[in-house]
Structures are given as structure tokens and as C-alpha cells.
TrEMBL record:
Alphabetized GO MF terms: catalytic activity; iron-sulfur cluster binding; metal ion binding
PANTHER family from the UniProt entry: ENDONUCLEASE/EXONUCLEASE/PHOSPHATASE FAMILY DOMAIN-CONTAINING PROTEIN 1, TYPE II SECRETION SYSTEM PROTEIN K
Domain Radical SAM core: residue ranges: 61-195
Superkingdom, taxonomy of origin: Bacteria
Protein name in the entry: Putative DNA modification/repair radical SAM protein
Keyword entries, A-Z: Iron, Iron-sulfur, Metal-binding, S-adenosyl-L-methionine
Amino acid sequence: MELTDKLAILADAAKYDASCASSGAGRRDSRGGKGVGSTEGMGICHSYTPDGRCVSLLKILLTNFCIYDCAYCVNRASSNVRRARFTAAEVVKLTLDFYKRNYIEGLFLSSGIIRNGDYTMEQMVEVARSLREDHHFAGYIHLKTIPEASPELLEKAGRYADRLSINVELPTAEGLARLAPEKRADGIRDAMGELRWRIDENTEARRAAKATPRRRPPRFAPAGQSTQMIVGADGADDAVILRTSNALYGDFRMRRVYYSAFSPIPDASAALPPRAPPLQREHRLYQADWLLRFYGFGVEEIVPEGAGMLDLDIDPKLAWALRHPERFPVDLNSAPRELLLRVPGLGARNVDRIVGARRHGRLRLDDLARLRAPLKKLLPFVSVLDHHPRARLDDPARLRAQLAPQPRQGELFA
């Protein structure tokens, strides 16, 4: 099979993995720091760093052959898809060719399981080793780690990759046992724990070496680890999903948990739902995830007891505010930062700007306009010197109707 044919198959097969991110990497390109370019092509995905930079990565599978038969996976052993497999040398060549043309800044490499976890992980580590040691590749490398691989291979992977990720697959162990019986939830979490221990150990060793004349040890997966779970395949509600995510952040210090809405696949198992969940559900989970990580919310606040699912019509912070009108309006001139973060329409960056600005004077309505915040959403929940929402919070249902976006025509039939 021609290399371009393999690329078409294995780039398309990689599109289902959402955990393709480059946050935590330094600024790199193939022209000595003079700029970053990107283009479109097979296997090139675009992701964004926390500072807003668009980063292009070659996103491919080493192979879409797999010995496992996970019901939700298009590349499962029983699937009738066209198969292909790269050699390690071919992946190295593709990465370098794309990089030298400034099409990409790095590589995202995943794979189906060939023979066993160790054999597959060895091939992926060899790609990263060859890029780093044989070709002095300075770009970003993200390796999807095989949970069954030995600790020695995980250690080698972290030595060469910027980020490692292990997919938790599904929110519950029961769902995983039902839809992917060959995978073990405890094995996945053991591998995550191994990565966390190695990352923490490396961080401490580098910190200790910084204060002494000794040479600092090489970095281990400096961009940390991430994971992904499929939404809507096993019946778990949003409260369960968010509790799982919250535990992953706490137990394993995940940099990101990615959510991928289940997509119906050909010849699907009867155990799977016939239709995909609404994409808006995936979007709401990302918003809720942000509230957990950066805004001080708890899962029980985002999804109240007995609800189970997030509201698809409005974002979770606005939904919380409408359930708690007694907490508003918030005086922007005196409220602590923790309360400002709970105001609908205010992001963390604008909260910091407000805290900084009010050191120099009392805020007025004109000052809010300069924040470029959505004033329609913001004004019912805040007060400043020349603005008070008065009785707007006395009728949360009416306020919700005013703030909820009107459905687009295509969504009426979704």
C-alpha cells in the first residue's frame, strides 16, 4: 500500500480521539522561531494552547488493526473497515516531512493494539525515540499510552514525549465491562497512577537539582497526562460523568479530561444507542468541566441532586445563578474574587481585570462595556455605582426566557 493511502486511512481513523492538545508545550516551529504556519491536509488537526495560539499537529494512528473488540470503536476487531499499518520509520518520515514544510508543530500518535500492549507501545516509543535522538526533533510529541504496557515502557515514553494520555474510555467500570470486556478499569487507573508518580518524582528531582550544582535530570512528560471518555454510549448521566472527571483531576492530576460524544458506527452492537447524543451535551460538559477546574464549583452545584443531566438550553453557570437568585446581585466594587467568578458572563480574565481596576476607583456601567463581556447576560446579576438590576431576579423563569438563546432552525429537528 502506498504511503499516501495509509495516511488517508490512518488519519481518518484517528479523528475519533478528541484528546489531541498541545497545552504545556513551548513555542516551537521549523524556521528558527520566525513564525508559525499551518495548512490543511490529511492528518493535520488544529488545537489551541492556553494563550490562544493555534497549533497544528500530525494526528494519526500507527495502525487501525486491533485485537480488542470494544463495541463502541469503529476499529474493533470485528469491524469491516479497511486496515492499514505504518512502520515506525514511515511515521518518522511523515512527521519530519510535514514539519520541514512548516505544516505542523508536532505529532499526536495513537494506535490499535497489535499482538499485545507491550509490542504496540514499543513501536510507538521507537517513533518518539527516533525523532528525538536520531533526528533531533524539537517539536511537540503526544503519545497515547497503552494501559497494559509495562512500567519500563511508560518510563521510556515519558522520556521522549511532551504529553502522555490514557483513555478512561467510559465514565463507569460497569459500562466498560459491558461494552469493552477485554479492558479493565482498574488496569487503566493503575497506569494513570504510574504516570502521576513518575511525573511527580521527576518534578521533585528537577526542583532539588535546581538548588545544587548537579545536572538536572531530563524532563518526564512535561505537559502532563490527559484522558478522554465517550459520552452517550453507556447511559451514564452528566452527574456521573462529572464526578468521574472530578476524581480523575484529584487522584491523577490530569491536565485535561476530554469528552467525545458517541458517534454511531457501522454494524453497531445492539448494546449501543441507535442515535448519537446532541453535540450540545458535549459542549455543556466542557463548560461544566471548566467550572470545576477554574471557578470553584462542586459537582453537586453544577448538577443538583436528582437532576442528573445538564441543561442544554443554557450554560451551567447561568443555570446555577438562576437556581440561586438569593446570591445576587453581586456588587462588583466590593465582592471577593470567589463570588465574582460565579457571575454569569464573567470569565476569569475579566474577573482579574475588575479586581485590578477597582483599586483605582469605583466601577461604573461604562467600565463594564470596556470589558467586552456579554452585558445582556451580566447586568441582571451585578450592581455598580450607576446600575442595579432591581426586581429582575424576582422572577428567575422570566429571566431565563430572556437569556436563553433562541433555537436555530436545524436544532428544532435534532
